[in-house]
Amino acid sequence: MVVESGQLPPAYANDRSRRLLLKRLRGIVRVILIHAGLVPAACIFMLPFLWMLSTSLKPDVQFYSYPPVLIPSPLQWSNFPDAVTYITFFLYMRNTLTIAVLATIGVLISSSLVAYSIARIPWAGRNILFILTIATLMLPFQVTMIPLFIVFKNLGWVNSWMPLIVPHWFGGALYIFLLRQFFMTIPMELSEAARIDGASELKIYYSILLPLSKPALATVAIFEFIARWRDYIGPLIYLSKQELYTLSLGIYEYQSQYGAEWGLLMAASVMITLPIILLFFFLQKTFVQGIALTGIKG
Amino acid sequence: MATALPSVAAPRRRLSQGTRHTINGLLFASPWIFGLLAFWIYPTLASAYYSFTKYNGVKNPVWTGFANYIELFTSDGEFVDAVYSTVYFAVVSIPLAIIFAFGLALMLNAKIRGQVVYRTLYFLPTLVPEVALALVWIFIFTPHSGLIAAPFRAFGMRGPCWLTCAEWARPTLVLLALWIIGQQIILYLAGLQDVPQDLYDAADVDGANIFSKFRNVTLPILTPVIFFHLVTSVIGALNFFAIPYIMTGGTGFPANSTLFYSIYLYKNAFHYLEMGYASAMAWLLFMFTLVVTLFIWRSARLWVFYAGGEE
User: Fold this and answer.
1) Which of A164, A218, B42, B223 has the greatest CB tally within 10 Å of its CB?
2) Measured between alpha carbons, how far is A90 from A144 in angstroms, rounded to an integer?
3) Is B257 within 8 Å of B85 (Cβ atoms)?
4) Which helix (H) or strand (E) covers residue B223, if one does?
5) B216 vs A: CB within 8 A
6) Owning domain of residue B18
7) Tell me: the pLDDT tens digits for A206-257?
8) What is the C-alpha to C-alpha distance for residues A251 and B136, in angstroms, rounded to an integer?
9) Which of B107, B125, B153 sits opposite A34 (nearest CB)?
């Protein structure tokens, strides 16, 4: 084994270079094998979106053509302008955006305040509060769904966006957990020094903690925005007036008793999905870190 | 006299700081304390009460004791269908999701070019809104004419009937659920990148091959991630709602094979206005989730490996 690192006698030199060659060859085979596994998987994962995109550019007659056509010719771009006029697409988009933005602002403010309380202020009840917060993550949404509906109905909030926005202004368990984990990593001395200087907690929260927590706050904002953008069951329960619909309810209107307008439906689906894909593309690092952060301590 | 002053003031000041912390802590947490009470604790208790009543959401609830629970267990065939479909879905899809997500993450973790591109592509279905995803799946999985039929037609075969017949509908939904494991892949990948390199180096010195390295190094260190995936996916699988609801319009077609627990619960609550009955279903689900989660939690000490203790 000493031979490995020391100078080689001439007789071994040939042997060694052959071994090196073999090692490199094995490395190349390994890389090829890995790509041979990863490429088909990538094709399968891309399929729903690719087919959505492809169908959105097809004229009616090509939907079920055999063999299947991935890149239609000619490209039927008119499906896109037709899709936004066939239903009140922009109204639904504005509704969805309003709900998503207002809920996101609310969840950011409330969750960061609560996480600050649990992570940064030494007070007696904070551990119980934290345990309760984790416990709500285990509770199926069906348990609270019916009483909440009754409460909102009595408040006259059914057929309004209030049930889809207001609860988010009172904190989200997952985000409190996530931000608490992040706040814990910021040295406590920073807070103590500021307290000695006479800074109020609000001031410490606002001018020390928040600026240092931008990545975590960005993660929360993206997760919440996407969750609200994609939300289906919330609008399904609370919205039955068409003018209040979000995109996930409005998209049904491409289906009629004569069947679905697949080209328009897929064009609309592409338009709904694209903003999220762009968000993911540009903020990929934030995303990946956020997901990893939620899983670090189960 | 003057020298005694600080010693009197000091304890008072420390005390007042403790109180100040409590006041501040409560103030900062107050949105969530209200939120917990209004959106979690009250509804959970109310749901428990409703589950013992007949309640349509309009008139006052009427106390019926255990009638809802007795009916669920003795005379509701659809409930049995719903339980079966949901348990089937959980039992089949969760192990497959763990194997696929872990396997793909292992391959991605090899130092290869294009890791970020692959990761993005695997994450793609997770980003598509469920409605759009469900609709494009309906389109792809149309028997005999959808995209999925093409490979079968190429060999002159008729493919499976997918979502249109009872024997294929459940396996098809399991298959579809395997498309949305992007988050889990990222979790495993993050876990894999935390495995200390010196453990592999030590294994190399011992002459370990790739399989024994996986068995003795990678797998034990990744067990906390598997544990996390298992717990969250049990909850997720028992709540499986949007995709089958959209794909079948909540009908449970064909032959109740896609009537998942959450769908049947939703229909009881908002279609039949049997809110008491649906609340009983919700509590059974809650109890079942709790038992399964506790069981997994208790079993963790047997198979989950924490390097250097927890935290």
Assistant:
1) A164
2) 32
3) yes
4) helix B219-238
5) no
6) 4-50
7) 999 999 998 899 989 998 999 999 999 999 999 999 999 999 999 988 887 6
8) 12
9) B107
